[in-house]
Write a structure and sequence with these properties.
This protein has about 120 residues and is α+β, with helices and mostly antiparallel strands. It is built from 3 helices and 6 strands; from the N terminus they run H-E-E-E-E-H-H-E-E. It has a single domain, classed as 2-Layer Sandwich (GTP Cyclohydrolase I, domain 2), CATH 3.30.1130.10. About 25% of the residues lie in helices and about 35% in strands. Strands 2-3-5-6 form a 4-stranded antiparallel beta sheet, covered by helices on one side. A two-stranded antiparallel ribbon has the order 1-4. It catalyses: 7-aminomethyl-7-carbaguanine + 2 NADP(+) = 7-cyano-7-carbaguanine + 2 NADPH + 3 H(+). This is NADPH-dependent 7-cyano-7-deazaguanine reductase. Pfam families: QueF.
Length: about 120
């Protein structure tokens, strides 16, 4: 097993080292794009690829960027639908960060002539 595979398999999003204190009182937006998301279709097993876009206004904590990258990479061997993966990412980040605002967009590459974009915005739910 390669060191990157081991790091992904052993990754635990609940580790406190994955989060840093937000040292700023003002509202600002953190905008992150992760263009290499991959998961497996739960029905066919074919790979699904997406760009995950995350925007949030932090409250007391921010996520460490390497931890976010590894968390996103941890989906690569999972059988999970577009909708479930986007919602799991949103729910995990929302519960761990408790941000003032969070938006997650999962823009999946077309497969079978279908292009799916899932958007979850905390101000709209």
């Amino acid at each position: 097993m390669k060191y990157g595979e081991k790091e992904i398999l052993e990754f635990d999003i609940n580790n406190e080292e994955n989060f840093w204190p937000n040292e700023h009182d003002k509202n600002y937006i953190i905008d992150i794009e992760l263009p290499e998301f991959m998961a497996k279709c739960p029905r066919s097993g074919y790979p699904d690829f997406a760009t995950i876009k995350i925007q949030y206004t932090p409250n007391k904590r921010v996520i460490e960027l390497k931890a976010l990258k590894i968390y996103i990479n941890s989906f690569m061997n999972r059988y999970i639908s577009h909708e479930n993966s986007a919602n799991e990412i949103f729910d995990t980040l929302f519960s761990k960060l408790e941000p003032k605002w969070l938006k997650v967009v999962a823009d999946f590459k077309p497969r079978g002539n279908v292009h799916t974009v899932i958007e979850i915005d905390s101000s709209k739910i």
